[in-house]
Amino acid sequence: MQESTEKLVNEGRMLPLMEEFYTIQGEGYHKGTAAYFVRIGGCDVGCHWCDVKESWNAALHPPTSTRVIVDNAVKYSNVVVVTGGEPLTWDMSELTKGLKSKGAKTHIETSGAYTLTGNWDWICLSPKKVKLPTKEIYSKAHELKCIVYNKSDFDFAEEQASQVSKDCVLYLQPEWSVREKMIPLIVDYVMKNPKWKVSLQTHKYLNIP
To answer: What's the CATH code of the domain at 85?
Structure first.
């Protein structure tokens, strides 16, 4: 990466874009609604069950002008979901500024492991044990989505829920590869602890991106 490009990436005026696509939000609070997804490359959180490991190495994804990303997104939708990878690896200020200048609503899906940058209408916090969220993001999260891979994840979910605001919507979502095993446990847990809701990766059932 040339020095000038590296500087632009560090300032958030370019971002390592992995993919962008218009689809239906499949998870959490906004499931079932149309949205434009922007997937940013780069992540060192390293979840072993990650289903987009090809996003981890930012060097594989070309630095793209943030202005171009914005222009592409608003052609399709006024709701733009920024995901990764871990998008907060990079400064999101320019991206959200550009999107909001075009009247778009800004959503982010993040582990919260890095400093929160950008101006967000909706923050989905999906914390990971291997690299915990920063303290500041808990109070700002609108949605807490905890992935359940094994039984110990229920305890982790409760630890995380104790740190978010009282208005934060709480979700338990089975990791896809073990969904048949974990869904009955999640259903039972939510029925006993109704502050939680069940989230499913409905886009996978619908066979869409």
So the answer is: 3.20.20.70
- Is the peptide bond between 85 and the residue preceding it cis, with omega within 30 degrees of 0? yes
Total domains in the chain come to 1
Domain of residue 24 covers: 3-205
In single-letter form, the type of residue at position 104 comes to A
179 annotated as ligand-binding: no
Low-confidence spans in the chain with pLDDT less than 70: 1-3
26 among the known binding-site residues? yes
Q: What rounded mean pLDDT belongs to the chain? A: 95
13 is in an annotated binding site: no
Q: Are 13 and 59 in contact (CB under 8 A)?
A: no
* 161, 141 Cβ separation under 8 angstroms: no
Q: Report whether 85 belongs to an annotated binding site.
A: yes
pLDDT in tens, 1-45: 456 898 999 899 999 999 999 999 999 999 999 999 999 999 998
